[in-house]
Each structure stands twice: as structure tokens, then as C-alpha cells.
Sequence to fold (287 residues):
Amino acid sequence: MSRNSLATRSGGTLFLPFIIMAEDPQRNFRSAYYEKVGFRGVEEKKSLEILLKDNPLGILPPHSDSHSLVMGYRREQYRDILEALKAIRVVHAATPQVEVYLRMFQLEAQELSRSSELAPPGEDDENFLSIAKSMEEIVEDPVDCYWLIKCFVTQFNNKFGDTVPHLPKSLEHYLNMEDSRLLTHLKSCGALTKLPYDPWFWRCFSGCLPESSLQRVWDKVISGSCKILVFVAVEILLSYKNKLMGMKRLEGILQFLANMPQENTDAIVTKAIDLWHKHCGTPVHLV
Fold:
């Protein structure tokens, strides 16, 4: 039976797009995607369909009927915390929004100083503020932004707080596997111990990568892997190997990494994900 005759018997062209996609595997996005992520069996595909229909939304409950109610509660909680901070004169109209988020977070965590003269944010707060600044570029609504910052920082600290101090050693290990000559050069310049580990690891590259690239890294972190941070760092060093190998002074290396070009960061993140899979396999449960 010809394609045209079947389209006519179906009442016109209603089924024509389906027929074309069925004959062209490259246009059958759903099947191609299932195969790519490892769902090759019919039953596996049905299971994935069920999961996708649940539409989980991170900090929101999985049942869509509850979303408006929960968001109403969260907006009310946001307003209450903000009004409390204004009442005790911790924040005011001129307070930067990211600092408002910090003080809200501190108040909820019962970490807000009780002294009448509240000290400005210190070094321990810089990680939070950096993540908040990047999240503010991604999320427009201040209520959503605060909840995402709060959940991201809390999950990261609780789950990976003990792991992050060991990530520089992991970087050295994987860089040695990928390019021992570059590692030797960084050591000889005294740069290996001075790399920007806080911005890379404690701040999850906030302030280092543009938001489009940063979201892809954070997606992996939220999914349960802080090791992706190591491979992004390794790939940054590999991508700028020629530049770094030509530098002999520690100051020059650190200045370059602090102001590295932003135009090819998407490619760096893609290669970092490939490195992650190469050394760690395709994770079933991200670690």
C-alpha cells in the first residue's frame, strides 16, 4: 500500500508525519533517545514513560495538583522571613539581593549573628554569595531563586562537604592519567597547589563559567555527582594546555585561569562529561 493511499484512508494527512518518522530512524527522536541512554527494551521504555509522566520538579512535590498550594506556602514563608529581617534591621532597601538571600538562609539555619552590629559577609559566606549571583542570572523570580539557592547549597554541603577537600587530589590523579607532562609543568611552577580550588569546587564553578555552561555542570551535581567538578577542572587545564605550558610564572598561570576565555566553555563541559564517563563509566547511581 502506498503512503498516499494510506494517508487518504486515514482521513487525509493526519498520520503522514508518523509514517515518515517511522521510515526514517534519524527523525524518530524518542526511539533514538531511548537507545542513547540505554533503554533498549520495550518494558524499559514503558517504565521510563511512567517516570516522565510523573513530571518531578526538583524542589516541588511530584503531584502537579499540589504545586500551586506549595508555591503559595513558600511565597508566604519567603515574605515572612524577609519582613522579619527588615523588622530587626538586618536588611534594608539598599541591601543587595544576594545578601538578602544570605541573611534569609542564615536566619532559617539559626546562624544569624545576634549582635547589634551585624558584620558584613565574610570569607565563609563568599561561596553562598557566588552561587546566589549565578542562580540570580538563571532564575528571575526572587522566591524561586531563593528556594533553589537554599536547596542547592544545603544538599551540596550535606552530601559533599566531607568530599570536597579531597577533590584537588582527584584532579591530580586524573590529570596525571590524561597528560602527565602538563601535570609536571604545573608542579614545577608551584601552580598545582594554588589552582582556584575554592571557585571550582566549593562554588561549583559559579563565577567561572557562563550560565549556559554552568547549568549543565550543576545538573550533574544536583543528580548526585560532585566528581563532575574534577573533570571540568581537568578539561579546563587540558583545553588550555598550550597556553599554560608557555607560562613559567605562577602569577601568570593563576591570572589566566581566573580570567579564562568564555567562548568555548560549552565544548569544555561536553568534553568533561566525556572524561567523566571514560574514567567512571556511565553512572547508574551518580557518585
Q: What stands out?
A: Confidence is low (pLDDT under 50) at residues 1-29.
